[in-house]
Design brief:
Layout: H1 6-13, H2 19-30, H3 33-47, H4 66-73, H5 79-91, H6 93-111, H7 118-125, H8 156-166, H9 178-202, H10 262-265, E1 301-306, E2 314-317, E3 326-327, E4 334-336, E5 340-343, E6 348-352, E7 357-362, E8 379-384, E9 392-405, E10 411-416, E11 423-428, E12 433-442, E13 458-467, E14 469-474, E15 479-484, E16 487-492, E17 502-503, H11 519-534, H12 542-550, H13 559-571, H14 578-589, H15 595-611, H16 615-626, H17 631-642, H18 652-662, H19 668-682, H20 690-693, H21 703-722
Parallel strand pairs: 9-10
Antiparallel strand pairs: 1-4, 1-6, 2-3, 2-5, 5-8, 6-7, 7-9, 8-9, 9-12, 10-11, 11-14, 12-13, 13-16, 14-15, 16-17
Helix pairs in contact: 2-12, 5-6, 11-13, 12-13, 13-15, 14-15, 14-16, 16-17, 17-19, 18-19, 18-21
């Protein structure tokens, strides 16, 4: 077990310890509040700007010597010097930041070495004239941590350009070829031509005179020299029209022999008859919709948290990657616009907003309430400054919320899934109206794996009036209707269609605000939620608090707390340390001693992968670079976590056969994820068959595991024969 020193603490933060050492050290950190405060201090001082160089303590001070810092990081100081050096670090923020930053830099340099291009060597050799330097000298074969192939002869020109840019030199210089210089001159000439064309097109064209045909005669009127004649007639000069025939009334004929001037040929202007205004209900539909504009970016007070009787985990942070999560409690109840507000899985919270609007955040875990393919977890949203048209403006990124409007005629704008998503406007028509809105993201089983780009996850959104009456408007679709309690509207990103309002099916319990749990289920779950929330003492110590719970030993009392901590840890896995945190989640996935932790991690990581388009790429890099897994094995794990296939797909039989083979895969994560796919997407009744679900997956290679695989092969034959019938009700 490693000692808890400053150096081992830095190694723990930079994820350079072995998994067993990191687990043991994490348990020590969880038991020591002072160390948790030190971790937060290290993160704070390394991000602070303008610290300056550490000042010397005395004339004979060796602590501030860079050589001393290097020897400390290299573990070459004696015990007395180590104590003196660590004490000085604890006293000086500048010295502590220097040591932590140097450790981070060394970690990056040793794990991600940088290649020096051969042309860079040649530039260095040419700095001195001959015979002081040999310009024809070739770079030596210095050993490198990662072998890099030399550049191909046909790529030398591009290699030179890249090196020039990396060294801060200009793209084209005197040593370039005539081809490069001609390309530069051609690009400049093209820009000049395009600029001249743009200026010529922007110049106004001279007015042109047009001849008009005089109604009622075959003659052409003389061209008018005034530019106003080319404009359409003013509204008070429009000839009178017959409302029945819709034709223009012709002017009286002109007698021959009279003047032929334009003024005499034109009919006298007549003022159109005044018509009654169009009733309000017959106005064009576009006037009923407020244009969709980006929300205001100001940061101001948006509301406050309403204190509850039970402890909760509600956190918030500013929209900066390095901003820490702040716990919302009695000491910090104020909420600000454009901050990320997060109700962790399983926790419910009430917020008081403008115009007597109450916002209820409905966090959930599968142990509370589970729906196939649509189980919500955390609630993630941002409040925006109100505008002249809306009392409340918010963006819901994930989860379920309930909005209670105490006053009628309360205007609320809901933005779903960011700027490019749906926009719904709600107007309460009665007092005490309550509206439920839910957004859920998940990959459709069988979605092709693509680390970058590819098919995005399926997003579903539901709008439901649970009490009172509300008007629903979709300004991007020019649809509106008024709904009473029990009216449901849904949308999904695959079809892109917004459903018509329809009554909630009788007996539907998916959207109940207070799901009923038995006392046997509810009491232990509530106790675990309370214990996890009470354990967080420091406002900014959420990550350290959750990481300590991830490593809780295998005990019956730790099953629910560890499961809840895994759900919450995946919810906050983002920001500057996202790869380190994703690595901790994979360590839980591969834990051989705690099957409940593996199952919870599969649920949490699957939801995390669907939350952001970059998470698949991030997790793939963690598996291949940090955990040293083969690329093929890493892609298999990602495919299983995103949903391998389902019974409803045409390849269901072949996919089920491949999943059964994955139960004998050498990697425990593959076996666990394959079992989860078979239960979730192919046959939920597997959970009730002991011969298929009771045997631990860690017993692979033993005789009893061979019998276990034989039972799965029997199930596979049953499954293939049942595909001609409808799938079982889930």
């Amino acid at each position: 077990m490693p000692r808890l020193t400053l150096r081992t603490l830095l190694a723990y933060l930079d994820d350079t310890l072995e998994p067993e050492e990191a687990r043991d050290l994490g348990l020590k950190i969880a038991e020591n509040p002072e160390v948790q405060q030190l971790i937060e201090r290290i993160k704070r001082v390394t991000r602070r700007r303008g610290l300056g160089a550490p000042p010397p303590i005395s004339d004979e001070d060796e602590v501030s010597d860079p050589n001393t810092v290097a020897e400390y990081l290299d573990n070459r100081l004696d015990s007395e010097s180590i104590k003196e050096f660590e004490a000085a670090c604890l006293k000086s923020d500048a010295l502590l930041a220097e040591v932590a930053a140097c450790h981070q830099i060394l970690t990056l340099v040793l794990t991600e070495p940088v290649r020096v291009p051969p042309p860079a060597y040649q530039r260095m050799y040419r700095l001195l004239p001959p015979p002081l330097a040999n310009h024809q000298r070739k770079p030596g074969k210095a050993p490198t941590l990662t072998p890099v192939p030399p550049p191909a002869p046909d790529n030398l020109e591009s290699e030179e350009a890249d090196v020039a840019l990396l060294l801060g030199l200009k793209r084209y210089d005197s040593s370039d070829t005539w081809r490069g210089q001609s390309m530069l001159l051609g690009a400049i000439a093209g820009c000049v031509i395009l600029l001249a064309i743009a200026i010529w097109m922007a110049l106004p064209s001279p007015p042109t005179s047009t001849a008009r045909v005089i109604p009622g005669s075959g003659d052409l009127a003389k061209s008018s020299q005034t530019p106003t004649d080319s404009l359409p007639p003013a509204p008070d000069k429009i000839p009178e029209t017959d409302s029945q025939s819709k034709t223009t009334t012709p002017p009286p004929p002109v007698e021959p022999g009279k003047g032929t001037s334009t003024e005499e040929k034109l009919p006298p202007p007549k003022k159109p008859e005044e018509k009654p205004d169009i009733p309000a209900e017959k106005q064009p539909a576009t006037k009923d919709f407020t244009p969709v504009t980006p929300p205001k970016q100001a940061r101001e007070v948006a509301g406050e948290w309403l204190r509850s009787n039970t402890p909760i985990l509600l956190v918030t942070r500013e929209p900066r990657p390095e901003a820490p999560w702040q716990k919302v409690d009695e000491r910090n109840p104020t909420l600000f616009t454009n901050d990320v507000i997060l109700a962790l899985p399983g926790y419910k919270a009430d917020l008081k907003l403008n115009h007597e609007v109450t916002l209820h955040l409905w966090g959930n875990v599968p142990e509370q309430y589970a729906v196939p393919f649509e189980t919500p977890l955390e609630v993630r949203l941002r409040l925006h400054p109100p505008s002249q048209s809306f009392h409340v403006d918010l963006t819901l990124e994930a989860g379920r919320i309930y909005l209670t409007c105490q006053k009628p005629d309360t205007h609320i704008r809901l933005r779903l899934n960011g700027e490019k998503g749906e926009v719904w406007d709600c107007i309460s028509r009665e007092a005490n109206t309550e509206i439920m809105v839910q957004v859920h993201k998940a990959f459709v089983p069988g979605t092709p794996l693509a680390p970058e780009g590819g098919e995005p996850p399926r997003i579903t959104a539901v709008w439901l009036v649970t009490r009172g009456q509300s008007e629903f408007r979709a300004p991007k679709r020019f649809k509106k209707f008024t709904s009473s309690a029990g009216t449901l509207v849904s949308w999904d990103s695959i079809s892109g269609q917004l459903s018509e309002p329809q009554p909630l099916p009788k007996g539907e319990k998916r959207y109940e605000r207070f799901p009923l749990l038995s006392a046997e289920q509810g009491k232990p779950l509530q106790a675990a939620l309370t214990e996890l929330a009470d354990g967080l003492k420091e406002p900014e110590g959420l990550r350290v608090h959750l990481e300590s719970r991830l490593q809780a030993p295998l005990l019956p009392a730790n099953i629910l707390p560890t499961t809840l901590a895994i759900y919450s840890y995946a919810a906050v896995t983002e920001g500057a340390d996202v790869e380190v945190m994703a690595g901790h989640l994979f360590d839980v996935l591969s834990d051989r001693d705690r099957p409940y932790a593996r199952r919870a991690a599969i649920t949490a990581v699957s939801a995390w992968l669907a939350r952001d388009s970059q998470n698949t790429k991030i997790f793939r890099n963690v598996l291949t670079d940090k955990k040293q897994l083969p690329l093929e094995e890493a892609d298999l794990i990602l495919s299983l976590l995103r949903g391998y296939s389902s019974r409803q797909r045409p390849d269901a039989a072949a996919a089920a056969e491949r999943l059964v083979k994955c139960l004998d895969h050498p990697n425990l994560v593959v076996r666990e994820a394959a079992l989860g796919n078979l239960i979730a997407y192919f046959d939920p009744n597997i959970i009730n068959r002991k011969e298929l679900s009771d045997l631990p997956l860690t017993q692979r290679g033993e005789k009893i595991y061979e019998n276990y695989l034989a039972n799965w092969r029997k199930w596979l034959e049953e499954f293939k024969s049942s595909l001609q019938f409808p799938p079982p009700k889930q």
